[in-house]
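G., the chain you wanted modeled:
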Amino acid sequence: MQVPLSDTIAAISTPQGQGAIGIVRISGPKACEILKPIFIRKNKGHLKPHRFIRGSIQEGKEILDDVLVAFMPEKKSYTGEELIEIQGHGSSFILSEILSLVIRKGARLAKPGEFTFRAFMNGKLDLAQAEAVVELMDAKSRKALQVCHQRLEGRFSKEILEMRDGLLELLVHTEASIDFSTEDIEVFSPPAMLEKLKYIQEKMNALLKTYEQGRFHLEGVRVAIVGSPNVGKSSLLNALLRYERAIVAEEAGTTRDTLEESIHYRGIELRMIDTAGIRQTNHAIEKIGIQRSVKKIREADIVLVVLDASQEPRAEDFEILDVIEQGGQKKKILVFNKMDLGLNIDSQAILGKFLSPHLFISALLRQGTEELLEILYREVIQGDLNSENILLTKLRHKDSLEKALGYVFSYEEGLAEKRSLEFLAVDLRSAIEELEMIIGKISLEDVYDRIFSSFCIGK
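Predicted structure as tokens:
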């Protein structure tokens, strides 16, 4: 993010639209200087850190708003700079007038994410914590909140730093052996190095294994409801949502496009995707819907395959199951629907061919839906998240950790093959750099731009 840190910046930090309260935030070396001529206190005295002071924002003698002002001094604020927050009435017009006045007095309009960027640059947050700020604002479940707070507290960063420090220790010994190769000093002991290396590898592998769980907790679980036409996919969606969201009709092929809604179950967001019935058809619009259904199957974390329990399986049912099987290790649950019409399907023939969790339900009568939600939860969430779990949640972090692990394995191979210590040192430096990319200990402007530009203005 190419912005001068010597400027004083300002922005409206509350959402657009009318509200009871709105906040204008000012940060930088001239924050107090800008506030002084426009803030008239109700009572005499100076601004006191971390306390609200009542007064009015005025341009000359004209009062713009009655406000509360909070002052946070340098190094004790969110940004690590002088920070002023003006809390006024939540009128878009009033807030815009206050912001315009602040800018006329010497501030600059902040760019998206610039307040958090300054917190990062001033050492108040590392890069992983800064990313957690925007994720916290987008959190849609309690589990997501737990994961974000983990990162904000620095526990994830601490785990990465411990790995980096372990590799730094190995690098020190490796480079010392290079520097003192002509001396009769025992610095580098391959068995000791391997023992330290194994411990670091185990920590890296353990963290990488949490990625899927972490992503589920943070982003939710994509659940595709698939099946041939008229097996009750839309009825199942309505039963799970407990209201009539999808159109249900006797005519097959009613659903022509995907329909997405979210359910929160035991703190996890389940993103349910109702899809068009999959079958051979010459109808152009239905064909497009089926193509989208197949795409959603590929993108889903888990697939609910709905079958009509009241009649024998059709060729289309087996074709759908084959499509899912060809997708690799795709998790699936077989849902035998329409039990209210009686069980006529040979379920054992299907279950014998496609080993998978299954249950029998009636979407029409909403029977079995709670059991289905519990099976879904157990399939995607391995164990409960508690305060001791450290989870990997972001693809960027996963990629860097995988690369770091690759360099560590290369170092291990080099030890076994007795490669030159100079080459081993390069592997360690590369692994350390990958870990530092996660927490932002090295300067990577393009990474910073991608991260902070996704923030809203005022954050």
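The domain at 222-380 is CATH 3.40.50.300 (Rossmann fold).

Shout if anything looks off.
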